[in-house]
Amino acid sequence: MKNALLLLSLFGMALLMLSTGCADRGCTDPAADNFDPFAQRNNGTCIYRGCTDPNSSSYNPQATIDDGSCTYTGIVSFWSSVSCCALEVSVNSAVVDSIQVFYDQNPGCVTGEGIVRVTRPVGTYIINARTITGQQYTWADTIAIEAGDCLTYEFSL
User: Fold this and answer.
1) Are residues 66 and 128 in the same domain?
2) Among 4, 48, 74, 121, which one is least packed by beta carbons within 10 Å?
3) Nearest 10 degrees: CA dihedral of 49, 52, 55, 61?
4) Is the pTM of this model over 0.85?
5) pLDDT per residue over 42-97, tens digit each?
6) CA–CA–CA angle 38, 42, 45 (5° rounding)
């Protein structure tokens, strides 16, 4: 009787260990690539694909595997020392803003009145500016933006 009771107790403990052990653990986050709908407890093995580079504009702090989706941007601040007239600024033929305040010297890569600041993915762009009041002037140039750049571009005579 003692042996049967001992055997029954051991069997019960084994069954309890199996029901609370590793079998019910896995990734419980539905957003993870390896989500296990049968897992009852998260075991810390969730996998998330995304951009793992904190220097990227598309950085995903939750990503554990880099999937090649990282994108990089740079900034260009357009300004003008031409105080004759308001300017309209375009990037790749799309008007982005206008300049109506002028500077005697480069204000730097900042934001503020009279500065058109654009953030774009790494690449080469055609920029244009034209006067929208006063004398007629036009500017056209090509700029290359690299990752993390903060360029300044002056429209001047």
Assistant:
1) no
2) 4
3) 80
4) no
5) 999 999 999 999 988 889 999 999 999 998 888 888 888 877 788 899 999 999 99
6) 100
